[in-house]
Amino acid sequence: MAFKRYNTDVLVVGGGGAATAATIAAHEAGARTMLAVKGRFGVPGVRGAGATSNPIGDFWTIRTVGPKGGFFNPPDLVLADMIQSGLGMADPALCRIFVDEVSGAVKRLQEMGMQFQSKMLATMEGRAGELKTNRIVAIQKAIIEHTNTEVLEHANLTDLVVDGDRCIGAVGVDDEGEPFVVEAGAVVIATGGVGQLFQYSFNPPGNTGDGYAMAVRAGADVFNMEYMQQGLATTWPDQGIVMLYEMEEPYRLLNTRGEAFLTNYYQDAESLAEGCRMKATHWPVSCRDASLHIDRAIKAEVLAGRGTENDAVFLDLAHARRGFEHELFEEFMLDRGIDIKNDLVQVQIHHHSSNGGIRIDERAESRVSGLYAVGEASGWQGADRLGGTMLGGSQVFGWRAGRFAGEQCASRPQQSISDDDAEAHFADLRRFRKASGDTDIDTMRHELQRRMWQLLTVEKNAETLDEASAYIERDRERLRTALAIREPIDYALAYEQRNLHDVAEVIIETSKMRKESRGPHYRSDYPDRDDTNWMTNLFATHRNGELEVRRHWINEDIGWTDDPKDIRISPWG
Q: What are the DSSP calls for 515-551, one per residue?
């Protein structure tokens, strides 16, 4: 098989803010740097642009940290809230790095030309037509274009190449289905999350869990993958996050029969009032308080056939007003064709991000030498997480990974990838090229997304997890035997389907193992948090081609004590 060859010191894989930060840092460390992206670099809404530029909410925030002893966001308070939000699952050392370095990351962005509407919260409006919106990728792309960084577009990385315990590069296919090999001294995974596993998700088209899947197959660990952040958003006429921050009732949720259905999911009026009160303090789905049953109710009404043709229920905000930046919210919705003062808003629970990911150390390096992970591809925050820490953490750890990867390449000789080694990684491509089935990859993708949204989001139990597991096995077989290749891009999409299967398996198996409820992981058959038996992280990787899941608590030496005050920053996420 003929394939193109590339060679670089540091290969960065991804197209969002974590990738651009790592690329600039690697270049500044003196390394020859290549940035490989799906589709076109820096074009929002298409394959490979990354989630950083995806305008899904009325504002963006980088969680800032004030000076020690200051009034606003003192470091020790932010750190304590990050640890508490993680419910025993977060990495304190990495949270400490975030707290210590995020102010520097914000300052660095400002020096590059980034403007923030609020100095205290580093907020940015989410209106795509305004220059005030999140422009991190656009600004950092302009910097990259003035370096000697090689940008490889339409590059779909499919597997990492590992020699012993060292990553020495990667292989992939372009949009024409042609294979290529990249030899690299170090690889930085910045591929985002796995939102495209679910029908309703905020992730752009290329976020198919590639980094997780490649890392697991290469022998690196992923952990905390059962913790997926989800929240309320519109399904029609366009997608937009609906945050009920500090919003006092009356807002009403109605099904298509005109019924105010929340009373059916709470024991009494007092518990319903508590659920609504807690919903005003955070957007993400979490079983840490009574707001969970609002999210359960919304999805359950649709699955019971009492939703709209757009899989939604109606949210009536005509007499309600959000306490936080309400004008911005109203303008954002108007941009999407929704007048919240006069229209019933069609809403559903959407997948937002993975709170877990590739296990990294303080250098942002995985257990595989030379393999780094940043952004949503890396995991360090635990069960729940504070809002704004993902965007800020992408800059903090993106910069660290690029710098350390560049320094690592300077201190050791690069290894080459032989033709035989490369050929071994293209076995699936050879099989896809012989595909003679009758099922389009788009059909497979849409059906997979529908079933995983139904079975894995908001709440799970042994039955739904078994159904999900059986579906993944059937779909793997369908990919092997029923795939039809209609056009060259289908080769890349077939690889993505394989990755979605592998990541779904990790989510399913860790969710099966964790027989309790914690943060966004709610099991209706084990509805309570069980610190006695489940104060442990769950790690997953491949051993001899098979998935292995094991228990190990990263905080065993220092412990964790639940804070009865819970998270003191409000709204926290």
A: -S-BTTB-BTTB-S--HHHH-SEEEEEEETTEEEEEE
Same domain, 459 and 508: yes
At 85, list the tokens. Answer: 């939000």
Type and span of the H or E element at 112: helix 92-112
| Pairing relationship of beta strands 378-379 and 357-359 according to DSSP bridges | parallel
Q: Count CB atoms within 10 A of the CB of residue 230.
A: 25
DSSP state letters, 424-483: HTTHHHHHHHT---SEEHHHHHHHHHHHHHHHHSS-B-HHHHHHHHHHHHHHHHHHHHTE
Amino acid letter, 89: M
* Adjacent-strand bridge partners of 538: 551
Q: E strands within 260-395? A: 313-316, 345-354, 357-359, 371-373, 378-379
Q: Residue 167: enclosing H or E segment and its boundaries?
A: strand 166-174
pLDDT at position 45 is 64
Is cis: bond before 250, omega within 30 of 0? Answer: yes
Q: Is residue 286 situated within a structural domain?
A: yes
Residue 405 shares a structural domain with residue 522: no
Rounded to an integer, what distance in angstroms lies between the CA atom of residue 247 and that of residue 490? Answer: 45
Same domain, 264 and 149: no
- Give the number of other CB atoms < 10 A from CB of residue 181: 23
Strands 537-543 and 123-125 come out as unpaired
Q: How many helices (H) and strands (E) does the chain have?
A: 15, 20
Contact in structure between 202 and 228 (CB atoms under 8 Å): no
Q: What is the Cα–Cα distance from 519 to 514, expressed in whole angstroms?
A: 12
d(CA 366, CA 222): 9
Which pLDDT score, from 0 to 100, does residue 47 have?
A: 76
d(CA 352, CA 369): 30
Single residue among 316, 351, 386 that ends a domain in this structure: 351
Q: Taking Cα atoms as reference points, which of 368, 359, 351 lies closest to residue 397?
A: 359
pLDDT value for 288: 96
The ranges of the chain with pLDDT < 50 are none
Q: Residue 451 sits in a domain of what CATH number?
A: 1.20.58.100
474's CB contacts (< 8 A; 6+ apart) are none
Helix, strand, coil percentages (3-state) for the chain, rounded to 5, are: 35, 20, 45
Within a domain: 554: no
| pLDDT in the model for residue 253 | 96
Residues 6+ apart with CB under 8 A from 397: 18, 94, 97, 98, 360, 364, 374, 375, 378
Domain limits for position 433: 424-530
C-alpha to C-alpha distance for 371 and 406, rounded to whole angstroms: 12
**Contact status, residue 253 vs residue 298, Cβ threshold 8 Å:** yes
8 A C-beta contact, residue 355 and residue 228: yes
Structure-derived torsion over alpha carbons of residues 348, 353, 356, 357, reported in degrees to the nearest 10 = 140
Number of domains in the chain: 3
Tokens coding 294 = 């609002």
Q: Does residue 540 belong to any structural domain of this protein? A: no
Quote the Cα angle for 235-240-245, to 5°.
115
